[in-house]
Amino acid sequence: MSSPPTSGIGTPPPTSTSSFSSTISTSRCRREVERLRAERNAVANKMKEKLDPSLRQALVDEGKNLKESLIALEEDLVQLTDKLQLEAQSIPNTTHPDVPVGDEESSVTRKEVGSQRSFSFPIKDHLQLGKDLDLFDFDAASEVSGSKFYYLKNEAVLLEMALVNWGIAEVSKKGFTPLITPEIVRSSVVERCGFQPRAQNTQVYSIDNSDQCLIGTAEIPVGGIHMNSILADSDLPLKYVAYSHCFRTEAGAAGAATRGLYRVHQFSKVEMFIFCRPEESDKYHEELITIEENLYASLGLHFKTLDMATGDLGAPAYRKYDIEAWMPGLDRYGEISSASNCTDYQSRRLGIRFRPAPLEPPPSTNSKKGKGGSSGPTQFVHTLNATAVAVPRLIISILENFQQEDGTVVIPEPLRPFMGGLGVLTPKTKL
Known about the structure:
eight-stranded mixed sheet, three-stranded mixed sheet, BirA Bifunctional Protein, domain 2, 431 residues
């Protein structure tokens, strides 16, 4: 999901003059609201006493004036708080000191697996293969829903289900709990995860006359599953693998590089998510990217893993690895997954903390009975997310890489048990 790029290197950008001014104004306004509330309460307490009619009337008038002033000031406080919140959301996470500095072109290749397949025949892209194999219908979907929607047909339906079930099965073996998430969430949860659902050129579909949005990734509802909670230290790490449909506006996306299934408004995805202790997030980031690499290597894909540069990091990401697979029909590498360490950027906004386990007392011969270790203060967990299966991008990769000269497409071995044993997609006979 797209999000604002970082504007600083290694540390957050300095607070803007506007943000600083808003903070002072909000603080002053809040103090004035508290003062007026105290005065109103004092007047209310005096009214409980036995008073002369003239004095009682004076207090009634004073209370009325305080109430009117308080209403106006509370409205100002709400507006100032909203403004401050919007400015705070524009501040990105810090970045890992080893993250390459610069725009996307400055990203560094971390690993490369396999090599580009050499074809002895003219190759087709996934659109032509889909037409020959009768797998997609973009025209009908465009009439029904608009551009960048599609119908999957015949074996493509089996292939989507196979990819989802295979992904969940493989990741579950690593200790991840399977989830199916809500696909409509509150806008506030989207914002707390680091995205701006109602900003200009947002990728998020908002629902009119409500505070809800369609999700662009299962990262958002999974991130919110423990919102406003204090987790036990013994429960960490919490690992989830979540299936959902995803919806993205793809504002500004156009051109040959986005055609077909590559960039669409609705798709299925399997997402990994981890809540962990702060000192362990780098370790689990490595675990996530290793799981991704092993998944795609087992399919026989050629891909490279990139350590993404600062200019390509979304607001929540402390560090992000992208995996790009070779798509011969498109004649380029295309992103099929990413893995991000968001440290405590999301958990602070979502209110997700953990209580460290009690510390063992030091050995002592005269320690008093019953004096065990003590827990430290609660801490914010770190959150990480990574894509296991982005269905349309993997369908592209499989069709284009494993096409044969006779027009058939070979299904990678790991997926066949999830497709009822089907190993080859064959063109439909035209009557």
